[in-house]
Design a protein that fits this description.
glycosyltransferase, dolichyl-phosphate-mannose-protein mannosyltransferase activity, transmembrane, globular, cell membrane, 527 residues, single chain
């Protein structure tokens, strides 16, 4: 009776977009509010086939004519070349000067690019195929993550389709640059934590269903110990993101915060008396256990540099007249390399014709203020006297211009409905964009916004879902659901139409000058 009194004080559940699935074990005697709060959202049995269909569509778009345009576009000059030499020598090499190459980004993204070169050859298809594969798989991940978060196949497919039809994601999935891999691993780490959230809440549900008493004292008040495998997987995936670009560091505090916040929520839903204190005591160890995993993955990405003798600063201690022990000396040399690379990052202030504007760069990204031209040819291949063939890194305008209103609406709905999904999406978006406000002097580019893109799409989908469902405490409204579904479908369809209209600018298709100029809506800002 005392346990029933305590758990009855749990706040009423927030409304979901789908009914909770029944627990895998009998839940007799569990208050309905506890069962609903801890049960995962149910998904239609066709969720996987629907997600795979969206992924197939994205893959066909990205793989079609992948080797065109010919040659190395924009920063492929660096990354495709570095990837080739990593696999040849174990470290980057400057062939023109016949000396060791000095680079400022970790190696993992280049290892992945080089894998495609090893399979398909040192050519356009070889150095672009890895980006296309990872870009396609990221569409599958986002679709499944959205289905998990919103309990809706429709909203999950909407998220996947919006990513599939985004020009920025599309272009960066067809070019040998690092950003698609950074975004992939950040999104994967987030997805692993969403699975961890479901796993940990199911753990508490099983505990209560078996007669456990969350209000008791000591070990009797919590489930038996269980390894949080998805949480540890997130640490590994975050290590991969860090091994692609250091900018992944901005996500570390947010990912840790999500782990603790969601664990507190699970315990509060189960009726634990002191959820915050118990979470800190019980989960800090598991959070810290992720540190060596992240560090180990990051260090492993430098295996080529560590196992060979020719990498830049590989024998800095020896060359500067200091003692160099076999293992610790190599790590000290690597630390010196990192110091030099950090200094180089700080010194990137040279003006570039396609750079974003200073301290307001993240806002400019959302407004499509300065896209990046990757390729241009004015060869008359379109049948007109004057033709343009571009590969322009430009997000699908209708989608990107919806992001700012969606963020504002997500804040409103998130506060009004106390919805954990809004908080998670907004926190990850902030991690991707806010740090760049603190480096106004650094030369920045629009593609730095790619890690934010999946979470911006989730913000749009969250708002579409909120439009389909009434506030908590009100009965379902079939008409509202229908109108909301039509609105969501119409928006996705319009984004697809706009993407198709801009497709020639994403792929280097030759257009008559008049047709090309009609697509350049913001004039000189886009060229």
């Amino acid at each position: 009776m005392r346990r029933m009194t305590q758990t009855a004080r749990v706040p009423r559940p927030r409304q979901a977009l789908a009914e909770p699935a029944p627990p895998s074990e009998p839940a007799t005697g569990i208050p309905d509010v506890v069962r609903r709060r801890l049960s995962p959202l149910a998904l239609d049995p066709y969720a996987w086939p629907a997600a795979l269909f969206v992924t197939l569509l994205a893959g066909l778009l990205r793989l079609n004519n992948l080797a065109s345009p010919p040659g190395k576009m924009f920063d492929e000059t660096y990354y495709a070349t570095d990837a080739h030499w990593l696999w040849e020598k174990g470290f980057e090499w400057n062939e023109k000067e016949n000396t060791t190459g000095y680079v400022v980004h970790p190696p993992l993204g280049k290892w992945i690019i080089g894998l495609g070169e090893q399979i398909f050859g040192y050519n356009e298809l070889g150095w672009r195929i890895s980006a296309a594969v990872f870009g396609t798989l990221s569409v599958l991940m986002l679709t499944r993550i959205a289905m998990r978060m919103f309990g809706s196949v429709i909203l999950g497919c909407a998220a996947g389709l919006l990513m599939a039809f985004d020009g920025m994601h599309f272009v960066l999935s067809r070019v040998a640059m690092l950003d698609i891999f950074l975004m992939f691993f950040v999104l994967a780490a987030f997805g692993a934590l969403v699975l961890d959230r479901d796993q940990r809440r199911a753990r508490w549900l099983r505990f209560v269903a078996a007669g456990g008493d969350p209000t008791a004292k000591g070990r009797r008040s919590r489930p038996p110990g269980e390894v949080p495998w998805w949480r540890l997987a997130a640490a590994v995936l975050f290590g991969c993101a860090l091994a692609v670009k250091w900018s992944a560091l901005a996500f570390a505090p947010v990912l840790v915060l999500l782990v603790l916040w969601w664990e507190v929520g699970a315990r509060r839903s189960a009726g634990v008396r002191r959820p915050i204190r118990d979470t800190i005591l019980d989960e800090t160890g598991w959070v810290l256990a992720g540190l060596p995993l992240t560090a180990g993955v990051y260090l492993a990405s430098w295996a080529g540099w560590l196992s060979t003798d020719g990498g830049y600063a590989r024998h800095w201690l020896r060359d500067s007249g200091q003692d160099e022990t076999p293992f610790l000396g190599a790590l000290r040399n690597l630390a010196q390399y990192h110091e030099l690379a950090y200094g180089s990052h700080q010194a990137i202030t040279e003006a570039h014709s396609y750079q974003s504007v200073g301290e307001w760069a993240p806002i400019q990204w959302l407004l499509l203020g300065r896209p990046v031209l990757f390729y241009r040819s004015d060869a008359p291949l379109c049948g007109a006297d004057k033709c343009n063939a571009d590969v322009l890194l430009l997000g699908t305008p209708l989608l990107w211009w919806a992001f700012l209103p969606a963020l504002l609406a997500a804040i409103w709905f998130g506060i009004a409905r106390r919805d954990w999904r809004a908080g998670a999406v907004l926190a990850m978006t902030a991690a991707a964009l806010v740090p760049w406000f603190f480096f106004p002097a650094r030369t920045m580019f629009y593609f730095y916004a790619l890690p934010a893109e999946p979470f911006l799409i989730l913000a749009v989908v969250f708002v579409l879902g909120a439009a389909m469902t009434p506030p908590p405490g009100r009965p379902p409204n079939p008409d509202r659901q229908l109108y909301g579904a039509v609105m969501a479908g119409t928006f996705v369809l319009l984004v697809a139409v706009v993407f198709a209209y801009y497709h020639p600018l994403y792929t280097g298709g030759s257009l008559p000058y008049e047709d090309w100029s009609r697509r350049i809506l913001l004039g000189n800002l886009w060229i």
